[in-house]
Design brief:
Layout (H helix, E strand, L loop, with lengths): L1 E8 L3 H10 L5 E7 L20 E8 L1 H17 L5 E7 L5
Antiparallel strand pairs: 1-3, 1-4, 2-3
Helix pairs in contact: 1-2
Length: 97
C-alpha cells in the first residue's frame, strides 16, 4: 500500500477528486484550506491581501498498482494549468488497521 498526498490550488478540487474516482481510489481525507508556497514555481497561497489564493490537500491510501496511473493523470492536470500549482508525493504504508 502507498499513501499519496496531493497539494493543489483550490481550483483543482473537482478535477483531483475525479482522478481519484476514475482510478477507484475511494477513501481519502480532504483538507479544505491550507497555506503554502511551491518549491519550484507559482504564486504563494497565503489567503492574504497580497496573496489571496489558498491551497487544499488530499491524502489517500491506494494499492501499489494504482500509484503510477494516478500520478500520470495528476501530472497531466498540473501541466494543463501550471500556474495554479499541483504536487503529489508518495510514501510507503507499513501497517494499517
Amino acid at each position: 500500500m502507498k499513501s499519496i498526498f496531493i497539494a493543489f490550488d483550490q481550483a483543482h478540487k473537482d478535477a483531483v477528486i475525479s482522478v481519484l474516482e476514475h482510478n477507484n481510489c475511494r477513501g481519502f481525507s480532504y483538507f479544505e484550506q491550507m497555506q503554502g508556497r511551491g518549491s519550484k514555481t507559482g504564486e504563494p497561497h497565503y489567503g492574504s491581501h497580497a496573496w489571496p489564493s489558498m491551497c487544499s490537500g488530499i491524502i489517500t491510501i491506494v494499492d501499489d498498482a494504482r500509484v503510477d496511473k494516478v500520478l500520470k493523470e495528476l501530472k497531466a492536470l498540473d501541466e494543463d494549468s501550471e500556474l495554479l500549482g499541483l504536487r503529489a508525493f508518495v510514501w510507503n504504508i507499513e501497517q494499517s488497521i
